[in-house]
Structures are given as structure tokens and as C-alpha cells.
Amino acid sequence: MLDWRTSRETKICGVIGDPVEHSMSPLMHNAAFRKLGLDYIYVPFRVKKEDLKETVESLRTLYVRGFNVTIPHKVAIIPFLDRLDSVAEKIGAVNTVVNDGGVLIGYNTDAAGFLKATKEKGVETKGKNIIVLGAGGAARAISFILAQEGANLIIINRTIGKAREQAVKISQIFQREVGTLPLDRENLKKALEKANILINATSVGMSPNANETLVDSELIKPSLVVFDIVYNPFKTRLLREAERAGAQTISGVEMLVWQGASAFEKWTGVEAPVKLMREEVVKDVGKA
Ligand code: ATR
Question: Which site in 43, 200, 203, 288 is 20 to 30 Å from 232, CA atoms measured?
Fold first, then answer.
């Protein structure tokens, strides 16, 4: 097995973002490469907005095998890529790029990762009433993939205009109605009465604001499935409230790991060691 040493043939992967220091991806991918004895290395690149175009060209010409894209570049990178897969194109955001001999192809593995996380937990989304809290980049990928799966969606967001904009886009693509509501307790209560699944796709509850939640146990019924995309802390206040109410919960670590696994497989062509990747993340989140 390889240790930290590189060779003359080491393939490079990485993540571009700003900030990028908090990213769990280097930890997760390097552990996976080492475990499988793959001659790859994964590094964080802090890239400022104004340097994005030049950076992407450099990654292309250096034949960096692939990279993840995080805040604030997920949408801005699109014009600099050669091709988009159809899901990334419809979502309008890219989180994974594969460099095929100088041709850059953009994917959105956030969407695939979210779906895989629900399926792994035995949660069916087709035909279910699902509330998506949030209308940012992560929420967009989730709402899109759920509509594609045939879920009945309500998007609830603090800024209602953003929710409406996404609802219109999704309705146009999938010819299905998507509800929207401004975020307040009354609306949450009403929507939760009919909901099967609640997804927090906002950043509320993320460390250091780990004591915040948009929904408390009083609003949650035991039959609800609650998915929080926040993975730090591992068990967010929302998930604790949901457990208290007797509901099934899914941690954001699952989406993080499965989006990473999907990217890993695109770069290496090898099945990702998901269990190990999850253990690495949980170990590190526990430290935070
Ligand atoms: P990301 O790409 O990680 O999804 P983003 O695009 O900045 O990040 O989106 C953050 C989401 O969290 C948005 O839906 C945001 O609501 P607004 O559209 O109203 O800004 C939501 N959000 C962040 N802080 C919030 C808070 N304190 N209360 C409610 N919603 C919040």
C-alpha cells in the first residue's frame, strides 16, 4: 500500500473554493486513496473569485485528474468547462470536474449523493410530500433531484423570491407543481401536518451556531423523516429535536460521504470505500 509518498505518476485531485480550509474532502479522499493503494493525492486550493478562470485553465493544462468545486465557484465555473452532464446542466451548478486528457466535464454529485443517502437509509421519495427548507446552492440540487424522482415538493425559504424562482425552474423542467412558502412557524406547522419528509438545506444549526434550529420537536410527528444537510455537528439540534419526537433522522454526513464517493469513482474508476470515508469524517467532526 502507498503511504504519503508520491511517485513520478501520481495523479492529482483537489478542491477549489474560498474559504477551503474547512473542507472535509482532503481527509476523506486521501484516506480512500491510501486504503485502496491508489497513486493519487488530493489537495485543497484556495482560489479567489477573480482568479477562477485562470485557475481552471491551469488545472486543465497540468492534467490534474479532477477536482471538487465549492463556495463561491459552483455556478461561476460553468462557462470555463467544456461539457456538463445533463443533471449539472439542469441544476445550473457543478461540484465535481473530471479532466479527461484536457477536456473538462462538470457534474453535480451533491444531487446524486443526497439521493443515495436517502436510498441507503431505506427512505422512498417518489410520491412523498417533502419540505425543502432553503433555496441556496445545496437546496437547488436537492429540490431538483427530488422533483426528478417524482416527489411533491414545498420549498420554504426566508427569502421567498428565491424559493419561487427555483419552483418555477423546476416546474418548467419536470412539468410538475412545486409549492413555496415564506419561512415562519405558522407555515411550517401547516406544511408539516401533511409532510412525509423534512429536509434542512439551509446552514442553520451549523457550528458555531449549533444551538439553532428552524424546527423544534413540537412540530415534528413520529412518522416524519428528518434529513439535515448540516454535518458539523454530527448530530445537529434539528436532529436531536426530531429524535425526541420519535422521528427517523439522517445526518448530513451521509450526503457529504456519498457525494464524495461519486466524485471518487468518476476520477479513479474504482468503487469508493464508503465506510472508511464516513469513519474519517465522523472522527474529524467529533473533534470540532
Ligand atoms: P449553500 O450553497 O450552502 O446552499 P447559500 O446559497 O448561501 O449556501 O444558501 C443558504 C441557505 O440558507 C439559503 O436558503 C438561506 O436563506 P436566504 O435565501 O433567505 O438567504 C438560508 N439561511 C441561512 N441563514 C439562515 C437563517 N438564519 N434563517 C433562515 N434561513 C437561513
Answer: 43
Percent of all residues in the chain with a pLDDT value above 90, rounded to a whole number? 94
For this structure, is 128 an active site residue? no
pLDDT digits (tens, 9 = 90+) for 195-233: 999 999 999 999 999 999 999 999 999 999 999 999 999
Q: How far apart are CA 174 and CA 166, in angstroms?
A: 12
Residue-by-residue DSSP string for 198-219: EEE-SSTT-TTSTT--SS-GGG
- If one residue of 77, 144, 160, 202 were mutated to test the ligand 1 pocket, choosing by the most ligand atoms within 8 A of its CB, it would be 202
Ligand 1 neighbourhood includes 158 CB (under 6 angstroms): yes
Q: Could you report the per-residue pLDDT of 104-140, keeping only the tens digit for each?
A: 999 999 999 999 999 999 999 999 999 999 999 899 9
User: What b/e readout covers 123-144, taking b as 16+ CB neighbours within 10 angstroms?
Assistant: bebeebbbbbbbbebbbbbbbb
Provide the residue count of the chain.
288
Beta-carbon count within 10 A of 278 CB:
19
Find out whether the beta carbon of 209 lies less than 6 Å from any atom of ligand 1: no
Measured CA to CA, the distance from residue 224 to residue 241 in angstroms comes to 12
Distance 156 CA to ligand 1 centre (A): 11
Cβ 17 under 6 angstroms from ligand 1: no
